Amino acid sequence: MLIDRFNRTIDYIRLSVTDRCDFRCVYCMSEDMTFMPRAQVLTLEELAEVGAAFVELGVKKIRITGGEPLIRRNVMQLFRTLGQLPLQELTLTTNGSHLAQHANALKAAGVKRINISLDTLDADKFKALTRTGDLNQVLDGIHAARAAGFERIKLNAVVLKNRNADEVPTLVRFALEHQLDISFIEEMPLGAITEHSRALEFCSSAELRDQLQTVFTLEPLDNESAGPSRYWQVPGSTSRIGFISPHSENFCASCNRVRVSAEGKLLLCLGNDHAADLRHLLRAHPGDREILKQAIVNAMQLKPEKHHFTHDDTPQIVRFMNATGG
């Protein structure tokens, strides 16, 4: 397994297959957002090569992200290729809009778990927030994923105080009713936005737990995952209620993951700009996996010890989440 300079094991990569989405989310609200030319995006074959190189270095888990990965042409080819690797888990993050069409094929390709972004269950608010999104398409995708039989399905909701904080109990009830996990995420300062003040809209995980504990009995779970979520549970339910707290409960000390963007940048930390250019190596030395693996190992020395987020409306990271990978 990869070991970075702070002696943390890196066994999980997030592989972004596109910087494009079919509707926007809280991290991509700018009217001025631009997309990369197609030639700058890694091909599916290059993405598969990156995945194979990481697995040979000891990585056990790969998550496919975007943008919205399921809009990438022929993306199922990539899932099938990665599904043949000796992985503990192949997983997916999606906005759910195309999940109904692909759920069975994803399960057949070896995907074990799916994360679905869902910030509201109000159809009108959903359309207003996403510009073009249809909540019913996402709900159909959730039901199709449940029917396909994935090991776990988790909803991810980014919570803002005056946007959807009042819906947190409703989202939990939905998760409990449909035997889903759910994680609530503190907003991160990625990209320049004008639609709200990050400082005024910030809602901490502790605030959300306090709110939920007026409605539900929450018990902390001891079997924490290796990821950033810290999980609680309603007695008698199998659903896990997670809180991802990059501001209020920094989780850097247990970070076990890196990201590869759609353009082939190996991003060592979500909250920093440290990166290595894998696309250049892939195209300068096609088929030479040893050079690629050495570059990955060398890049681990760039991984910062932690991120330093604030509530300042000036973005600490100028790239939006679509360019980073969810």
UniProtKB/TrEMBL annotation:
Residues the entry annotates as binding GTP: 14, 63, 93, 154, 257-259
Chemical reaction(s) catalysed: GTP + AH2 + S-adenosyl-L-methionine = (8S)-3',8-cyclo-7,8-dihydroguanosine 5'-triphosphate + 5'-deoxyadenosine + L-methionine + A + H(+)
GO molecular function: 4 iron, 4 sulfur cluster binding; cyclic pyranopterin monophosphate synthase activity; GTP 3',8'-cyclase activity; GTP binding; metal ion binding; S-adenosyl-L-methionine binding
Keyword NADP appears in the UniProt entry: no
Keyword set includes Cell cycle: no
Record-linked Pfam families: Mob_synth_C, Radical_SAM
Keyword list, A-Z: 4Fe-4S, GTP-binding, Iron, Iron-sulfur, Lyase, Metal-binding, Molybdenum cofactor biosynthesis, Nucleotide-binding, S-adenosyl-L-methionine
Obligatory cofactor(s): [4Fe-4S] cluster
Biochemical pathway: Cofactor biosynthesis; molybdopterin biosynthesis
InterPro entries: Aldolase_TIM (IPR013785), Elp3/MiaA/NifB-like_rSAM (IPR006638), MoaA (IPR013483), MoaA-like (IPR040064), MoaA_NifB_PqqE_Fe-S-bd_CS (IPR000385), MoaA_twitch (IPR010505), MoCo_biosynth_MoaA/MoaC (IPR050105), rSAM (IPR007197)
Binding, S-adenosyl-L-methionine: 27, 67, 117, 188
PROSITE patterns xrefs: MOAA_NIFB_PQQE (PS01305), RADICAL_SAM (PS51918)
Record note on cofactor: Binds 2 [4Fe-4S] clusters. Binds 1 [4Fe-4S] cluster coordinated with 3 cysteines and an exchangeable S-adenosyl-L-methionine and 1 [4Fe-4S] cluster coordinated with 3 cysteines and the GTP-derived substrate.
Residues covered by the Radical SAM core domain: 5-222
Residues involved in [4Fe-4S] cluster 1 binding: 21, 25, 28
E.C. no: 4.1.99.22
Task performed by this protein: Catalyzes the cyclization of GTP to (8S)-3',8-cyclo-7,8-dihydroguanosine 5'-triphosphate.
Family according to the record: Belongs to the radical SAM superfamily. MoaA family.
Oligomer status and interactors: Monomer and homodimer.
Record HAMAP family: MoaA_B
Protein's recorded name: GTP 3',8-cyclase
Naturally occurring in which organism (per UniProt): Simiduia aestuariiviva
